[in-house]
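Morning!

This is the sequence you dropped in the shared folder:
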Amino acid sequence: MILDVIVEDKLKRLPEHKKRISEEKMKELALSSTRKINSFYEALKKDGLSVIGEFKKASPSHGTMNNKIELVERIRQYSESADAISCLTEEDHFNGSTEYLKQIRNMTQLPIIRKDFIIDPYQVYEARVIGADAILLIAAILDDDKFKELYELAYSLGLDVLCEVHDEEEMKRMLALDVKIIGINNRNLKTFEVNLETTKKLSDMVTDDMRKAGKLLVSESGVSDTDDIKLLAKSRADALLIGTVLMEAEKPCELISEFKCIYDNECEKEELAGNEKKTEVKICGITSEADARLLIKYGADYGGMVVFYPKSKRDITIDEAGKLAKMLKESDIKTVAVTVSPDTDKLRQIQDNGFDYIQIHGELYEDVYNESRIPIIRAVNIGKNDNMDDIKKSISEAAHKEKIVGILLDAGIPGSGKTFDWNSVKELELKEKKLFLAGGLNSLNVAAAVKCAMPDVVDISTGVEYDDILIKGKDEKKVKEFILNARK
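The structure's back. Tokens below.
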């Protein structure tokens, strides 16, 4: 097996290293080193995906790398986009060298992990001396006693340890040893075959409590394109160690940025999908493609565009609204044209632009109702001083109309950000119509609103806009938090 051959060659190489610098001298140099360590652990612990960009000349599975940029330029790009650097120092099968790590140390402040087949304390001391901030220990080549010895030695020198596993038995061993950083190698080190599902399978063995306690997961090997990134996102790994595809890229910094964006987006989708969708979410007042992309990114159920109502600051032309509706429908988001007292001409324009629903405030004229080919959401405002009997009558009339599929309850002044008494909803008879709850909702109160009024859909506009009124559009952080909290 190739792994056995590599270890045998490493045993032959060690005496050469020890001949150049004795074990006693290397230990002395390591213990007396005053070099500041850049925390590998903290670099991976941050929010979002961390990427460890690798430098290697060759590998047994791939052969010599088709390197398109010089080392200085590579490390410059890694420093701009990656969170840590992995440097191969194994000589015989990866064409690595400790000299490469020394060079890289002088080019960057990023944490550097020495990636090698470490089997002897000498290599750990050497890692500290040549400029590494962390080392790799491979479970497959070390028994528990030796692993623990090298692990504890590394931490005594201030080095972090990436503890590599590639099957369930090795994962169990690392969990029993309670190591801090576990690397899941998708490449079987005995056959060198790659299976990205290995990360998902083994990551499931790490409980949420272990993650909360600070245990980190790194997925290693096998990434070649964005589809691989999407697959690995299901594992919720904290970091990816990526080698060949970055080594052979002309602009690795751009590839790293793309991978991070795709991975984080996929994780957010998984998080949102993991919440049982008891309540749907409608984001209203969409005015731009940037707004629409947020709805797509975080999985809103409805998108609303205000049309034919110039009094609203969110009013856009029917052509603009139609383009946004098309964009949302391509992502299976239901589209709603929001308007006030429309006539049949405005209705026809809305229908011609392919909207799924029309939401009508103000008057619903009989000819508009009769001519409508799309379902109607009827808005009813509940003001502080409104007569509840009149409100009930309006809702009852709407509830008996076949083309009306939903009743939207809003505060007295739509779009004002004001709430109304959610308990009043319990008195209303909606029959089989969907209840859309609007008026003053935000990420802080939506869970309480859902619990109290039990709507089918929560509807928000002002509550996901920027606090600074001079900034137009929807605030990404607010959109994400609102959708998450609405579906908890």
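Headline: The chain has a mean pLDDT of 92.

More detail when I'm at my desk.
O.
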